[in-house]
Amino acid sequence: MELVPRFFDLPQSESFFLFGPRGTGKSTWLRSAVPDALWVDLLQPEVFRQFSARPERLAELLESRKQEEPRTIVIDEDQKLPEILGLVHSLIEEKKGRQFILTGSSARKLKRTGVDLLAGRAILRTFHPFMASELGAEFFLENALELGMVPLVLAAHRREEVLSTYIDLYINEEVKTEGLVRNIGNFTRFLEAISFSHGSVLNIANVSRDCQVGQKTVESYVSVLEDLLLAFRLEVFAKRARRQVSRHPKLYFFDCGVFRNIRPKGPMDKVSEIDGAALEGLVAQHLRAWSENKYPYPELFFWRTRSGNEVDFIVYGSHDFAAIEVKNAPQVRPQDLSGLLSFREDYPECLPILLYRGKERIKQKGILCIPVNDFLIDLRPGACITDVVC
Questions:
Q1: Antiparallel, parallel or unpaired: β 38-41 and 72-76
Q2: Beta pairing class for 362-364 and 367-371
Q3: Residue 262 has pLDDT above 50, yes or no
């Protein structure tokens, strides 16, 4: 696969953390964007040994290159050696003009060791799987729903095999090696059980019962998934709420292909249920990538009342207020609009949108109904939702 231009603006002078799940292309993109940078790859065993024994080696490297000191220094997978951040902090303070880029696929070890992420000296940015608009003509909705949008997978010759080993890579290299959980068997059962919560309200008690692991342990496992950037939660939209709303968040895996690979499949599992959850997850990961690469950053929520009215996504920001429902169906049925109509009653300022698997843009009861493929292709950072759908 040729190098795909990404929707990511490189901060020109500030140092920054660049977090993102494994395989999203952080290192590949950086090597293209800053080819002259000094590179410290902590995934390389020899490099890790050298710097773990003497983190101050970084200062010595810069001192030895005073005549042609690199302006940009990349420390790849910094969670492998949190101790190096104290030195980075002092090097930033020592000399202006240096830009440190610190990449990572997990913030957990940094948090657990009490590292304060350079006391605000570096901004935090996130790298996501591909967006449909980045792939352009190479984006195919059916393929995305099966394989997801992780660059590591899409660039592979045998994509299905790479996808099937993706979670094993995380379990072996992050969870097991770093000692993030005590019982790998319990964690593996938890992964299968939590996959049923993808795109649904997260009920810790139900997950605990399904995987036969205590509720406190399940809560810690969910935190592990979030810290490893493998999953994220959406909170309930409750601003000026006129009705009682649910208190529990929804959970999504960061990529619909990864979700599909983890989700157990059997004779009692309906294909339509898995397809629907995968489609909703694909929209979720696109909205998240769009919002985190747009400034000012819109917030993402979902809406669910105690009586059961629900809207999949609420986009709320200074220039965006949209309610988005996703349906895995080729036609729009009257009942598909009920959640959006209820939300519009409470929030007439919002733009209600229904995304579906049909091919026509239509309007029903004042609600825009748009093919989900069109929406994903047109969604790109910098654009408001109104610009995308109109």
A1: parallel
A2: antiparallel
A3: yes
Q: How confident is the model at residue 263 (pLDDT cuts 50, 70, 90)?
A: very high
16-126: which CATH number, 3.40.50.300, 3.40.640.10, 1.20.1530.20, 3.20.20.80? 3.40.50.300
Q: Six-digit token pair at 284?
A: 């979720």
Which token pair is 281? 């997850």
Burial of 226 (C-beta count, 10 Å sphere; 0-12/13-18/19+)? middle
Amino acid at 50: Q
The answer to whether 279 touches 326, Cβ cutoff 8 Å, is yes
Q: Where are the domains of the chain?
A: 16-126, 132-389
| Phi, then psi, of 131 in degrees rounded to 5 | -100, 155
Task: Give 314's strand partners.
Answer: 301, 323
What does the pLDDT look like over 175-184, one tens digit per residue?
877 677 888 9
Euclidean distance between CA atoms 7 and 5, whole angstroms: 7
Quick one: which of 265, 261, 241, 246 has its CA closest to 310?
246
Say if CB 289 and CB 380 are below 8 A apart: no
Per-residue pLDDT reduced to its tens digit, 138-165: 999 999 999 999 999 999 999 999 999 9
Q: Distance between CA 359 and CA 373 in Å, rounded?
A: 9
- The partner residues of 300 in beta bridges, in order of sequence, read 315
275: which residues sit within 8 A by CB, 6+ positions away? 145, 328
